[in-house]
Amino acid sequence: MIRLIRSELLKLRTTHMWWILLLCSLVFTGLALLFNTAQAHQELHMPGWLNQQPPPELSQEDQAQFLADQQAERARVLAARSAAGLARHAANIYTSGQFFGLLMVMLLAILLITNEYYHQTATATFLATPKRTKVIVAKLITGAAMAVAFWLIATAIDLVVGVIFFADEGYTNSLGNWAAQQAMLLNLLVYVLWAIFGVGVGVLLRSQIGATVTAAVLYTVGTYAAMAVLTLIHEFLIKKDWVMQAAVYIPPLASEHVIGTLSGQLGGTHLPARWVGVVILVGYAVVLGTIGTLITRKRDIA
Prior knowledge:
Elements: H1 2-13, H2 17-44, H3 60-81, H4 83-94, H5 98-118, H6 122-128, H7 132-169, H8 178-204, H9 208-237, H10 241-245, H11 251-258, H12 262-265, H13 274-298
């Protein structure tokens, strides 16, 4: 098994795609950090108008509304500055870049399988190791190791930028808060699971271009399309909370729910516990991994 894993790592290193996908992951991580820190700064900043008196030209009713808005905004900012609020911002910043980082991990895991068929090395691989299950397990382990590396690099960048950001803002970085720690650790689990997804997709769709394009489109366009459909159903057909809660069954959104960032995107919709997202992702990984192994064991490699 160790020799098989070394072989898979060698195959990966001899292609150019791994560093291209890593570079893309770093770029998206930087963009996500820029957005998340700007959002946190805006929510932590106390607007100057909160300390102003209502303009005298306003009617008595409008002045009362002005003071009510002041109170609501002050309460929101104070909540963002609380320990729980800071931990929420920290978790969001320390997991920046997850959405596109997972996509890069999945695409690289797909290449672990499809490269064999694209470069016509599958026959030699399975002749050298007739027990195909071992080959798939080695690819799964390699994909998982690669996912850990991607997570480690992105998280290191997130931590450095996040610590500097909170120090500049004058707030604690929440690194000692379990909520922030949990988000980062669960993010690691999510990265590994998406590597397993990638191997499964690569087995189902052996064409390198077909598998990568299909996976990328489903991950990006499919996710937003599914969200749009759920939103339309909730707005015009079924005005029930469970409609929007169904978003956790969409794998990319389940990943965001696991680290606790999905609720904010859904306008504060009450969602099930985060462990539900973990169970959903593990279920997808088990199904894809099992199907991929069974297909590889029986499919003709010629």
